[in-house]
């Protein structure tokens, strides 16, 4: 490695811990300080990476995917921590192969196909609410934010609804390890879970080859990429990413939002009754919660990011929340302002890898907020409780204890 890169790194050095134990807001405060003093900086933690903090730099890199940057490995340390056989598909592949996958996936998540799921999503939401509505109290993450996207995902994929608890356990372990355990213990748990997931997916694939249906699993089995059908390893890398991308993200947006409304109960009514309308309010919550944290690697001889010329092989890492809290575009960025003037947020990413599930995610959020509002017109954090949060490769909230005036069951079946 040339002397120049060491000089460049040390000139811009400011260490950064993506796995810090700070709260999300404390971490964002630190990012705000970096944005002011060292918007593009080099962190030596782990295997080292560059950290971006401004909307312009982050959107600039995302726009240049395939032209100077690749998305493999999508991890700040350049490691395969999530258990893919080769690379997570499609998030860690680029170029023509990526385009072919998107041509298969995009129609399966089109607005029309996703809209057909709405009645099932309403059923699923109400069945979950039925389980706690009479109690007057619940832990919202365990009883709604986690199972709701899981139930949606199983319906979409055509996988058995009763597999929901293990699916949620798998995704939580891969994303967040074991709460309170050492990194080694968490990695051992991740490896065990990935083996279980693989056995499960391979059995499902075998079954669906015998018994094709009109579901996402069957469509992926029948798709041809580069002139051939996908191997079991490729299907695993695809379904693993879909589980990780589809479950934890919606869960995080719901959990962060309910922690916010629990702290500021008056804002719950404002979300629905304000002049901007519910859809604008959901976009503002997406801006504010933005859980995903992509990483890219420079493949051109060099790439200009901010005012730093990064040579080939350097990794850039950027919480999308950092872009979404940039005061250049969002005045008073840490406040939730439901009628904020429109400026597209980056919660779903940008460019070639922009989220496949964007219509599904918006539908899930719309249904979840509407049904909870109908059945829990008021709620607040349980007295003395404070939600536990985590950072990492997807930011979120582990528990949100809420209390509310008890309601009545509507007699729906559990999803
Ligand atoms: C609020 C919920 C969601 C958020 C905030 C979100 C966010 C994102 C982001 C930021 C990316 C791009 C990451 C990158 O550039 O490295 C992405 C990609 C992706 N998301 Fe989502 N997502 C959500 C829900 C979903 C759902 C429900 C699904 C489907 C079940 C899904 C499937 C995917 C897939 C397959 C990709 C990879 C796209 C590609 O690489 O071309 N997402 N998502």
Automatic annotation (TrEMBL):
It comes from Prauserella cavernicola. InterPro entries: Cyt_P450, Cyt_P450_B, Cyt_P450_CS, Cyt_P450_sf. This is Cytochrome P450. The keyword tRNA processing does not apply. PROSITE patterns: CYTOCHROME_P450 (PS00086). Keywords: Heme, Iron, Metal-binding, Monooxygenase, Oxidoreductase. GO terms for molecular function: heme binding; iron ion binding; monooxygenase activity; oxidoreductase activity, acting on paired donors, with incorporation or reduction of molecular oxygen. Belongs to the cytochrome P450 family. Pfam families: p450 (PF00067).
């Amino acid at each position: 490695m040339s002397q120049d890169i060491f000089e460049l790194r040390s000139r811009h050095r400011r260490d950064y811990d993506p796995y810090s134990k700070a709260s999300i807001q404390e971490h964002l405060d630190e990012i705000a300080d970096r944005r002011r003093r060292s918007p593009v900086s080099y962190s030596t933690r782990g295997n080292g990476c560059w950290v971006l903090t401004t909307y312009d730099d982050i959107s600039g890199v995302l726009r240049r995917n395939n032209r100077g940057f690749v998305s493999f490995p999508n991890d700040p340390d350049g490691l395969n921590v999530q258990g893919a056989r080769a690379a997570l598909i499609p998030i860690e592949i680029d170029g023509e192969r990526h385009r072919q996958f998107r041509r298969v996936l995009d129609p399966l998540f089109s607005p029309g196909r996703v809209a057909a799921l709405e009645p099932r999503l309403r059923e699923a939401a109400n069945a979950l609410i039925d389980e706690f509505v009479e109690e007057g109290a619940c832990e919202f993450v365990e009883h709604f934010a986690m199972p709701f996207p899981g139930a949606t995902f199983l319906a979409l994929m055509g996988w058995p609804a009763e597999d929901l608890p293990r699916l949620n356990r798998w995704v939580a372990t891969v994303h967040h390890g074991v709460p309170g355990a050492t990194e080694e213990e968490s990695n051992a748990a991740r490896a065990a879970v990935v083996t279980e997931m693989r056995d499960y997916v391979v059995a499902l694939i075998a079954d669906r080859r015998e018994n094709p249906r009109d579901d996402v699993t069957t469509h992926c089995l029948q798709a041809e990429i580069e002139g051939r059908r996908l191997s079991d390893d490729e299907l695993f890398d695809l379904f693993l990413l879909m589980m990780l991308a589809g479950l934890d993200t919606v869960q995080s947006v719901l959990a962060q939002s309910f922690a916010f409304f629990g702290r500021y109960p008056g804002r719950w009514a404002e979300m629905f009754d304000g002049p901007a309308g519910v859809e604008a309010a959901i976009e503002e919550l997406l801006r504010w919660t933005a859980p995903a944290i992509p990483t890219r690697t420079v493949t051109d001889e060099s790439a200009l990011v901010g005012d730093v010329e990064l040579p080939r092989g350097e990794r850039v890492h950027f919480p999308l929340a950092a872009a979404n809290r940039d005061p250049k575009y969002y005045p008073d960025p840490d406040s939730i302002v439901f009628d904020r003037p429109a400026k597209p947020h980056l919660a779903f990413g940008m460019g070639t890898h922009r989220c496949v599930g964007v219509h599904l995610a918006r539908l899930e959020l719309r249904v979840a907020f509407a049904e909870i509002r109908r059945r829990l017109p008021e709620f607040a954090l349980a007295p003395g409780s404070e939600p536990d949060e985590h950072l990492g490769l997807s930011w979120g909230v582990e528990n949100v204890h809420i209390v509310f005036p008890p309601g009545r069951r509507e007699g729906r079946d559990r999803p």
